[in-house]
Amino acid sequence: MKRMRIGVTGIVQGVGFRPFVYNLARRFALAGWVQNIGSGVIIEIEGVPFAVESFVQALKTEVPPVAVLEEIWADPCELKGESDFIIRKSEAKAERQVFVSPDVATCADCQREITDPKDRRYRYPFTNCTNCGPRYTIITGTPYDREQTTMAEFTMCSTCREEYQDPSNRRFHAQPNACPECGPSYRLFNEQKEIQSGEPIETARQLIADGAIVAMKGIGGYHLVCNAQDDKAVSRMRRRKLREDKPFAVMGGSLDILKRHCVVTKEEAQLLTGSVKPIVLVKKSAEYSLAEAVAPGNPYLGVMLPYAPVHYFLLRPEDILVMTSGNISDEPIVYEDDDAFDRLSTIADYFLVHNRRIYCRADDSVCRTFQEKPYWLRRGRGLAPAPIKLATSGPKILACGGELKNTFCLTADNMAFISAHTGDLENQATYNSYRDSIRHYQEMLNITPELVACDLHPGYLSTQYARELGLPVVGVQHHHAHIAAVLAEHGMDEKVIGVAFDGTGYGTDGNIWGGEFFLADCSDYIRLAHCAYLKLPGGARAIQEPWRLAAWQLYSLYGPDFINRAVPLTSRLQEGWQLVLQAAEKGINTPLSAGAGRLFDIAAAILGIRTHIHYEGQAAVELELAAAGIQGKALPYQIQGGTPLELDFSPAFEALVNRMEAGADYRSLAADFHATVAAAMIETVGRLGRMTGVNKVVLSGGVFQNVTLLSLVVTQLEKDFIVLLPKMVPPNDGGLSLGQIAVARKRSEGRCV
Ligand code: ZN
Ligand code: ZN
Ligand code: FE
Fold first, then answer.
1. Is beta strand 249-252 parallel, antiparallel or unpaired with respect to 262-263?
2. From the CA of 181, how far away is ligand 2's center (Å)?
3. 116: which residues sit within 8 A by CB, 6+ positions away?
């Protein structure tokens, strides 16, 4: 006989791991026990040596679908002579950080049950099992047990308890296990908070079909739902949500119906149907016929498939519903019931509410594909808080992230836990939830940071938070963080040419940076080139009102006569523009920015595409849409100076004016402008490559959400360079926290904390 003590870490709690171990031990006729501890799972097995070895082998190869094993160790220990294999009660006190599973989309077995009229869970919207269901959003503490979830207030009925206790059952130790008799339920209310009669979900479905807007509580928060084929309903929702132009995401009842309206590639279909179920940006097809207001003027559409039982009841296979985050404009997604009634009542006609508390909010994750690979734009439900593995071990660090599209990140050992998308930290409400959320993550993952990393911008709330903690602080330059995030993901720390094309980030010379070419590794960077500084007349307002930037650009090219040029901009200047230019000339409230985002703003404004924006990056997004499908030719530009080099695009702006006057189409000029920025970037990288001898290039920053630009640049650069792109973290500011971690770790090794 032989006895082994085995430790397993990774995502092994709440994913059916102990039942799996139990069944495995049975199969090999072994005695012993399995137990959840803070850091993972501990197993002791005893039996004939051959069986013990086979068990260890099977443990590694037959893992349940949702589990992710990090480490397994096995040591022989003394025989105890038990006769049975049991699942021991979880250890209350966690020793180290623990891995918390993200929420998992409803599995095929559960789908079958909820659609089977003979099953006791027929049409039950809270059906789940060890292979699927809510996790992160309902976990209040660790170890992961029912008492530490928002299911604690529901007592299992005897049938559910039997399933829960039966090791051969799919629901053995499925913590959120529930049925119509004992679990949570939905109710439907009108705006006056009056309960509506009838089966709540079916009634809601009919109301939506008749044109109503319903606020629906789901897994990570509230969605606003209406019929995507109903012009009136979608326009009404757009008006009420104060979201003038930003496209809405839709959910299709089946992949087939999505394919009728969109072109879905093999890779996109895989993303859509996998266990994360993110929103995937796909191309609209020629047969696209959804309401115009869903994604006006946009060749792309954000689509997803059902991921919770309620979605299967709300959508028939042929239905498509708008399903957008329940919030007003850019506020974080609403997840508490009172808050929903308070804040969504101006938008929704009805409220489909359930009584299982959401402990952590999580927006839907957003992804697109680039070169047949996923390219994440937002990390939320289904991803958070699964760790990203780092190449080396390091201290416990909290990275506070940036200001817009904030995420924060905690590390322990070689794991980086990036938070779900927090949103824009511009108001007190988001800031409060940000602080709560950091506290919860620290408890949940049992990480007490020794060090904190943040952006250099003194005005960011995330920076202020970092400074209040009383820990050693590592300030990380914004674009260095963008580059370091990609290095960290690729498990690299060597010198690369880092291109961070971005909107706004704090520069160490007192100006705004954002069109950066660094020679960088994780510990440091040298600024080798950047986009030429541009004046921002009126400061932050110039970012909301691109006409200011463009007017100043034309004024510097042509003097006061610019107003006579025959381009759309000159007829769209806002009243008082003369004062704006005068102030800019005197340098009053006119900071300097090298942000690459501003180049796109100026081009969009000159071409009359957009003079005022309603969401971050809108002018650039619309310039890209205008260029869709057109092969552009680079306009003139200049690369000047020594170190750093400066990329000057004023010749390109001049060319835009001349060609517009000569009658060129704004769409082909938009394409030309993309080609120009790409050409200048490629030439600069080429020069820097020759200068430094470095052959690896990292591309990141919010501007690279523009895949038109990205593909122009990557195709060309790949001829001479190894090009590294973000894999799991977004190129936008949602990726900053991981970059801050990478830099802080490196610096904490030496003296310079
Ligand atoms: Zn399931
Ligand atoms: Zn039950
Ligand atoms: Fe940024």
1. unpaired
2. 5
3. 122
| pTM (predicted TM-score) | 0.92
Phi, then psi, of 281 in degrees rounded to 5 = -80, 120
Give me the percent of the chain exceeding a pLDDT of 90.
Answer: 84
Angle, helices 49-61/17-27, rounded to nearest 10 degrees: 150
Least distant ligand from the CA of 617: 3
Dist. CA 710 → ligand 3 center (Å): 16
Taking only the tens place, the pLDDT of each residue in 153-193 is: 999 999 999 999 988 888 988 999 999 999 999 999 999 99
Tokens of 211: 């044109």
The residues, ordered by sequence, that sit 6+ positions from 412 with a Cβ below 8 Å of its Cβ are 96, 97, 396, 445, 447
Q: Is the pLDDT at 564 greater than 80, yes or no? A: yes
Q: What angle do CA 499, 504, 505 make, to 5 degrees?
A: 75
Q: In this structure, which ligand is nearest to the CA of 171?
A: 1
**Rounded to whole angstroms, what are the CA distances from 100 to 42, 135, 335, 383, 427?**
16, 8, 20, 11, 29
Domains of the chain listed by start with CATH number: 2-87 (3.30.70.100), 186-366 (3.90.870.40), 387-490+730-748 (3.30.420.360), 530-724 (3.30.420.40)
Place of tokens 């089966």: 199
Which range, of 168-177, 644-653, 728-737, averages the lowest pLDDT? 168-177
CA distance 595 to 702: 10
Contact between 493 and 746 under an 8 Å Cβ cutoff? The reply is yes
pLDDT of residue 441: 94
Name residues with Cβ closer than 5 Å to ligand 2, which is an ion: 157, 160, 179, 181-182
* pLDDT (0 to 100) of residue 90: 77
Nearest residue to 406 (alpha-carbon basis) of 323, 508, 330: 330
Three-class SS of residue 619? Answer: helix
Verify cis geometry, omega within 30 degrees of 0, for the bond prior to 636. no
Q: At what angle do helices 618-626 and 666-692 cross, to 10 degrees?
A: 110
Interval between CA 153 and ligand 2 midpoint (Å)? 13
Residue carrying structure tokens 């004062």? 579
Q: Which amino acid is at 585?
A: E
pLDDT by residue (tens digit) across 123-163? 999 999 998 999 999 999 877 889 999 999 999 999 999 99
Helices assigned H by DSSP within 570-665: 577-586, 596-606, 618-626, 650-661
